[in-house]
Amino acid sequence: MARMSVEERRRALIESAYRVIADHGVEGATTRRICAHAGMPLASFHYAFESRTALLNAVMEQAVPVDIERMLNAVLPAADYEEPTTIEVIRRNMERQFHAFYDLLKADPGRMQAAIALGIYAHNHPELQEVGQTMYRELYRIAAEGLRAISDNAPVTWNRPVEELGPFVIAATNSITLIHLSTGDEKVIDSIIGAVSDQLSTYVTVD
After folding, report:
1. What is the pTM of this model?
2. Please, which residues bridge with residue 158 across strands?
3. Domain residues of the chain, as ranges?
4. What class is the 59-206 domain?
5. Which CATH number fits domain 1-50: 1.10.3470, 1.20.120, 1.10.10, 1.10.4160?
6. Least confident of 4-13, 37-46, 77-86
């Protein structure tokens, strides 16, 4: 393979680790398997990371938040509201966008599965607990920013701080993911999406 800089190796290993975790779980994401996926020799791993733990840290700090932000951009768009804007219009829009998230999930379920698996793994491993907590705080922030974009682009305000609602959005996307992965029951997922949209709309005030 062509000679790669250390930064290029790091990026390739981070993305490969994320993909391998999606396919094989955190325990199955060995350095050998990750390097094979990245198309680089195992011996080159330590040129980029001092340990597998350091690589998992990087995945949680970089790859997961970027990936979830991309998906949440589909969940919480900044425009496309009907006129006149009402709470019901906002509720229907949020419902549509949670369904859009679900469509993305079905297209590539492994990446959300990897994000959840990493959070659980980090919680159970002291050397990763802090970065796992930081990862979720970043996800909450991303969700809160998406909610803030709604009130920035429609004549509505939130009657509860979006920082408090961000975790609710992440809990919803995690629930949708887990139901899809474990049962694939679309009726249950539709029910979750409806309930989440109903609940979020109770925090909306039309200006």
Report:
1. 0.86
2. 204
3. 1-50, 59-206
4. mainly alpha
5. 1.10.10
6. 77-86
